[in-house]
Amino acid sequence: MVPKTYFQVILFLLSSLYVTSSSNRVADYDNWISWNVKNYQKKTILETKWKTQDLILRKAESNKVRIIVSQDGAGDFKTITEALTSIAPHNTRRVIVLIAPGVYREKVMVPRTLPFITFLGDARDPPIITGNETASATGRTFQSATVAVDASYFIAINIKFENTAPHEIGSRGGQGVALRISGTKAAFYNCTFYGNQDTLYDHKGLHYFNNCFIQGSVDFIFGSGRSLYENCYLNSITKKVASITAQKRTNSSLESGFSFKDSVVTGSGQVYLGRAWGDYSRVVFSFTYMDKIVISKGWSDWGDQKRDLRVYYGEYKCSGPGANLTGRVPWTRMLTDEEAKPFIGIQFIEGDTWLISP
Ligand SMILES: *[C@@H]1O[C@H](CO)[C@@H](O)[C@H](O)[C@H]1NC(C)=O
Ligand SMILES: *[C@@H]1O[C@H](CO)[C@@H](O)[C@H](O)[C@H]1NC(C)=O
Ligand SMILES: *[C@@H]1O[C@H](CO)[C@@H](O)[C@H](O)[C@H]1NC(C)=O
Ligand SMILES: *[C@@H]1O[C@H](CO)[C@@H](O)[C@H](O)[C@H]1NC(C)=O
Predict the structure, then answer these.
(1) What is stated as this protein's family in its record (predicted)?
(2) What is the position in ligand 3's atom list of the atom closest to the CA of 250?
C-alpha cells in the first residue's frame, strides 16, 4: 500500500530512515521512495493543469480527419511524407493517416509542429516503413531513425517500423534506429520494431506501448523516456552478450524509466535485462516471462561501480528460467507489492490523463 495520509507518509519516511541509515545505497533507495510518494501527492495538486491539457486532447479527438496513403494511387497520397506535408502546422484536430499495405522506403519525420497524428495500418497486413541508415552514415544515432517523431500526442496502430542496417560485431557506428520517439504522450498499439543495434529510441516524454514486438541485438530499447510497455515481446537477435535496455537517467530528480509488464523476453544470445546509461538508470520488469537467454546476473552497471548504489533495477513476479534470482547482482531490487505498485499501471506514465482507447 502507498501511504495515503500526511501522517502515514511521515511515519513511513521516518521508519524507513530508521531502518536504513546504515548505507548510501539504502539511503538512495529511501530518497527514491520518498520521491515516489511525493510524486503521488504532486499528481493530485497538478490535476487542474492536466485537465486543461485533456481539454486540448478532447477537442482534437472530437474533430478528427482522415487522409489515405496508398502506393497504388487509390488514396489521397502515395507517400507518408506527402501526407504529412499536406497538414497545416499547429493543427488542433487529430489527423488519422490511414496507410495501406505496402513497403514504404521513406525517412519519415513528424515535426514538433504536427501534434495529434495517428498512423493507422491494416492489422491483417500492416504497412512496413523501412530504412537502413546508421549512426556512422548520418553522423549520429539520433539521425539514423527511419521514423522520427518530435510531435506530441502521436499514435501508431498496426505499423511495422524497420531499420535493416546490418550490425557487424565489433563495428563502430552501426547503430540503426527504426523509430525515435521524442514527443510526449505517445502510444503504440500492435506495432513491430525491427532492427539490430539501437532499434527503438525511447528518447524522452511519456510513452505507452501495447502488444508490440521489439527486436534487436544491442541496447535495442534505449533512451530517457518514461514508458510503460505492456504485453510486449522483446526478441534478442544478438549472437553474443548484449543488453536489452539502456535506460538513460543521469540525475536522481528525473522521472524517466522503463516499466515492462506482462511481457516476454526471448530470442538468442546472452542478455542483460538492462545496462546503466547514466548513474540513475531505472528499469522494472513485472509479470514477465524470461527465457533462459537472460544472464543470471541480470543487470550491468556498464563498468561503473558507483552506479550500483544509484540505479533502480527492479523485478516483480516474473517467471521462466531467466527470472531465477540465483546469481543476480546484489543491487537488483526484488520489489514488494508496495514498491511495484507505482510501476505497474498506466499511472506510471500519467496515462489516466491522456491515454485514449484506440
Ligand atoms: C540501403 O538501402 C539502399 C536502398 O535500398 C541500398 O541501395 C543500399 O545498398 C543499402 N545499404 C546498405 C548498407 O545495405
Ligand atoms: C491489436 O491486435 C489484437 C489482436 O492481436 C486485436 O484484438 C486488437 O483489436 C488490435 N488493436 C487495435 C488497436 O487494432
Ligand atoms: C538534477 O536536475 C535538476 C533539474 O534539472 C537540477 O536542478 C539539479 O541541479 C540536477 N542535479 C544534479 C546533481 O545534477
Ligand atoms: C535457480 O538456479 C539455481 C542455480 O542454477 C538452481 O539450483 C535452482 O534450482 C534454480 N531455481 C529454480 C526455481 O529453478
Answers:
(1) Belongs to the pectinesterase family.
(2) 14
